[in-house]
Amino acid sequence: MASIEEITRIVLIGCGATLVMDIWLVFLKRIGVQTLNFAFIGRWVGHLFHGRIAHASIGKASPIAHEAAFGWITHYAVGIAFAFLLISISGVAWTRAPSLGMALLVGVCTVAFPLLVMQPAMGLGVAASKTPSPVKNCIRSLINHSIFGLGLFLSACVIEWIFR
Predict the structure, then answer these.
(1) Tens digit of pLDDT for each residue in 52-103?
(2) What is the distance between the alpha carbons of residues 128 and 32, in angstroms, rounded to a whole number?
(3) What is the pLDDT of residue 51?
(4) Secretion signal: which residues (predicted)?
(5) CA gap 151, 13 in Å, rounded
(6) Which residues make Cβ contacts (< 8 Å) with residue 99, sequence separation at least 6?
(7) Is residue 148 a contact partner of residue 20, using CB atoms and an 8 Å limit?
(8) Contacts 24+ apart (CB under 8 A), 23-28
């Protein structure tokens, strides 16, 4: 069983990594690249509570109260869950001596979640196959999740420095 300090480190690593990804997404948006609307994630989560898993188009699904807040909360909760995944694979000692390779590997592997779960559930098809440019969207997702992996490493380094 993990200690409170270890759990705190993992939660902070997940939040930090998600923040790094968000900074990347803000940069992309500023240079004119379309990024994910987190309200759509909140809409999907809101519909889950009503028993609806898949949509033909999440953009055309009925809006859910507070969907933007649900989307952001879900976004950070998933980032924390992915940090727990990293630590369950590499061990809690990783939080004290993080390696870039393991963080990037987990970040890259997490791209399976949007490609195989979120995009199909939101009506975009497996690996964005129902979008006008699926390969471009898949590459963009891979880059975003690689940035998340980098964020796992950077956050762990900062948190280790703070906890010393």
Answers:
(1) 999 999 999 999 999 999 999 999 999 999 999 999 999 999 999 999 999 9
(2) 20
(3) 92
(4) none
(5) 8
(6) 90, 153
(7) yes
(8) 24/144, 24/147, 25/144
